[in-house]
Design goal:
Layout: H1 20-45, H2 52-57, H3 65-86, H4 100-110, H5 113-125, E1 131-137, E2 143-149, E3 162-168, H6 175-178, H7 182-189, H8 195-203
Antiparallel strand pairs: 1-2, 1-3
Helix pairs in contact: 1-3, 5-7
Length: 204
């Protein structure tokens, strides 16, 4: 049975960047619903022995189109939110900058961490409608930035990368506090991103 990642903070722990109401709605309602629906569909498809990554990477093996669509949407919603919430910590606790191999690769490809943030923010802000901005690691260790619509990710799209960090630009991630100011949310979100999580993903 798939479970939500456990939050490393109380519902008010991300204030003032993300308010209590958003955490309660985003994690406590939306992510709960994705997780339950995904578990139901996985059981229906007989895929309980597979990881979420395996299921999303092999959707072409699901013959039933309705079931396939459900697994893609609900599975992406489940997994993407796990990746998102795992990387967040209160601003006073989050590691503010990467070190080691990840920092070296960022500087090699983007020039600086600030340049990477600018590129990711621009990508995520430009996503039409709901979706995500991503930093991924390719098989050769290089980094890639990209955006996906709805609940797609590198697994459902069969991209040569694994997630390092993600920016959620579904309206339920920010609209209660930031309204239509998506760019303001994205700029503020970096205060909560714990680079130690991104480092572990890159080095893993």
């Amino acid at each position: 049975m798939f479970e939500q990642v456990k939050l490393a903070f109380a519902n008010d722990g991300l204030e003032p960047v993300i308010d209590v109401a958003t955490v309660e709605t985003h994690y406590g309602k939306h992510h709960v619903a994705y997780t339950k629906a995904f578990n139901d569909l996985v059981e229906k498809a007989g895929l309980q022995d597979k990881s979420a990554e395996e299921i999303l990477s092999n959707l072409d093996q699901v013959a039933d189109e309705t079931l396939k669509t459900g697994l893609r949407n609900q599975g992406g919603g489940y997994l993407n939110h796990n990746i998102y919430f795992e990387q967040l910590k209160p601003a006073s606790e989050a590691k503010k900058a990467p070190e080691g191999a990840l920092l070296a690769q960022i500087e090699k490809q983007f020039g600086s961490v600030d340049k990477l943030k600018e590129e990711l923010n621009a990508l995520a802000a430009s996503q039409f409608g709901s979706g995500w901005g991503w930093l991924g690691k390719k098989a050769d260790g290089t980094l890639v930035t990209y955006k996906t619509a709805n609940q797609d990710n590198c697994y459902s799209l069969k991209l040569d990368s694994v997630p390092i960090l993600t920016l959620d630009v579904w309206e339920h991630a920010y609209y209660l506090k930031y309204r239509n100011l998506r760019a303001d949310y994205l700029k503020a979100l970096w205060d909560l991103i714990d680079w130690s999580v991104a480092e572990a993903r890159y080095n893993g």
